[in-house]
Amino acid sequence: MKKIAVISLGCPKNLVDTENIVGLLKATGNVVFVDNLKDADIIIVNTCGFIQPAKEESIDEILNAIEEKKESPEKKVVVAGCLYQRYKEELKRELPEVDVFIGVDEIEKSVEKILNQKIAVQKPYLLREILTPPHIAYLKISEGCSNACTYCAIPLIRGKLKSRPIEEAVEEAKRLADKGVKELYVIAQDTTAYLYDKGEKEGLVKLLEKLEKIEGIDWIRLMYTYPSHISDSLIDFVANSEKVLKYFDVPFQHINNKVLASMGRKYTRKDAEVLIDKLRNRIPDITLRTTFIIGFPTEGEREFEELLSFIKDIEFDWAGFFKYSREEDTAAYKLGDIPDEVKESRLNLIEEVQYSIYEKKQMQLLGKEFDLIVDSPSEEMPGFVEARSYKNAYEIDGIVYLKGNFKPGEIVKAEITALASSVDLIGEPINI
């Protein structure tokens, strides 16, 4: 019986790959999973290679695993995922201590590569082992991306858009529901481009129609929706849906037209404003999450000021800000870079503005009633559980501390009674 420790880095899309590897290994019946690297016979690091900080974290974790191997040379170190896919030759050359490398397109061969054992599986995705809390799961509906944003390394790593067949995605979702999943996160590099590669422009709506009929799934949350691919039919579907949450994650990345053009984004500021108005008008209770890149090479002071004033005007419910990372082999690489201290000061300023918006937004929720999904008992606040309304995505938005003792996955009606911080709330159950 081999003891295996797994470290999964990067985004939820990468986590799904890790879950698939773990499921395949578990299906052999020859492995047991451990948390401590010291106890492991095999250490698997599923890496991220998207931007510099993620690459550095991946390298640190690989080096940690190699240190463990030095102490116990019989240990095996496995490096999988995006970093290896992007820098195959360099990693093989620089890290001779690594026993096995697995590319993002080699997940199904992982048992053979790690355990030197063949396993015949018709539908590996049905073996997937959920590493999130059991009531939450990600459903990855496609690989790669064809949007060709100039700063993005994903097409270099995962290639052009390759959508999964609709029947396969639905079959996997049913399997997740059978395992007790209540909240399903529909993810891809661009979920709204689902089936574009097959000539189908309303693929996401067709998929959601089927996902909504699955018994056991109560909430469906859409992530990574590209601004100019959000169709009227998708907006109408979400507006009228019983299960698809009134929550849109729309990464705008910038708002100045010059910067957007140099980023290779296929829309203008005006397009973004029209979309935001449309979403807010057609779905009155909508929660809008977005992300922005700060310090892109074509972002001067004027362009940054425009973004800052846009943030103040629009008042997004949630916004993530990331310093631009200059990535070799991307089209934006030749545009050069701006000093890190400039990026840092802009980042601090815009985050400060956003935090004051958060506080205002949370204040508006006092006295309101919501259905909350329970995640876990709270360590910070004994006697409370950590929960979320439709307004909060798992691990990236604020939470609601709910008074009482409820089970993970339970959905509880509650009233918001106080702020716990500028992003977190306190709730009291109703009719309990």
Automatic annotation (TrEMBL):
Main localization of the protein described in the UniProt heading: cytoplasm
Alphabetical list of Pfam families matching this protein: Radical_SAM, TRAM_2, UPF0004
Q: What EC number(s) does the entry state?
A: 2.8.4.4
Q: Where does the record say this protein resides?
A: Cytoplasm
Q: Per UniProt, where does [4Fe-4S] cluster 1 bind?
A: 11, 48, 82
Please give the GO cellular component terms listed in this UniProt entry. cytosol; ribosome
Domain Radical SAM core, residue spans: 131-360
Cofactor binding, note field: Binds 2 [4Fe-4S] clusters. One cluster is coordinated with 3 cysteines and an exchangeable S-adenosyl-L-methionine.
Q: Which reaction does it catalyse?
A: L-aspartate(89)-[ribosomal protein uS12]-hydrogen + (sulfur carrier)-SH + AH2 + 2 S-adenosyl-L-methionine = 3-methylsulfanyl-L-aspartate(89)-[ribosomal protein uS12]-hydrogen + (sulfur carrier)-H + 5'-deoxyadenosine + L-methionine + A + S-adenosyl-L-homocysteine + 2 H(+)
Q: Which GO terms describe its biological process?
A: tRNA modification
Q: Which UniProt keywords apply?
A: 4Fe-4S, Cytoplasm, Iron, Iron-sulfur, Metal-binding, Ribonucleoprotein, Ribosomal protein, S-adenosyl-L-methionine, Transferase
Reported cofactor(s): [4Fe-4S] cluster
| GO molecular-function terms, A-Z | 4 iron, 4 sulfur cluster binding; aspartic acid methylthiotransferase activity; metal ion binding; protein methylthiotransferase activity
Ranges for domain MTTase N-terminal: 2-120
Q: Which residues cross the membrane?
A: none
Domain TRAM, by residue range, is 363-431
Residues annotated as binding [4Fe-4S] cluster 2: 145, 149, 152
Q: What function does this protein fulfil? A: Catalyzes the methylthiolation of an aspartic acid residue of ribosomal protein uS12.
What is the similarity comment for this entry? Belongs to the methylthiotransferase family. RimO subfamily.
Q: What is this protein called?
A: Ribosomal protein uS12 methylthiotransferase RimO
What is the species listed in this Swiss-Prot or TrEMBL entry? Desulfurobacterium thermolithotrophum (strain DSM 11699 / BSA)
Q: Which gene encodes it?
A: rimO
